[in-house]
Amino acid sequence: MTDCIFCKILRGEIPSSKVYEDELIYAFNDIAPMAPVHVLIIPREHIESAARIAPEHASLLGHIWTVIPQIAKQQSLTDFRVVTNAGADAGQTVAHLHFHLLGGKTMGTSLA
User: Fold this and answer.
1) Pick from 16, 14, 9, 46: which is nearest to 31 by CA?
2) How far apart are CA 100 and CA 82, in angstroms?
3) For residue 16, what are the domain limits?
4) CATH code of residue 43
5) Which residues are annotated as catalytic?
6) How many folded domains does the chain comprise?
7) Does the model's pTM come out above 0.90?
């Protein structure tokens, strides 16, 4: 997708602070962090949101969930939160599946 900001980051058109990358995913520091550690993990394949995940994405998602603890460890996190949003009402601001890895502080349980 040409207009997607995350696709532009993947193509190197927009700079980012890389944390991790491999052939399937790319992870970088969020430019507006909501915690001391706030890493975004995105698939290289453009998938609009969690609502668009299909059976053929199972292997990719398994890979993402395998790499998340590695990134957390690399960021010196033992406790962390992982969040993904699906749709504008849920807080999704970029229409490209992404996971927020948050940590480095005590977080509450309120979702309000």
Assistant:
1) 16
2) 5
3) 5-103
4) 3.30.428.10
5) 98
6) 1
7) yes
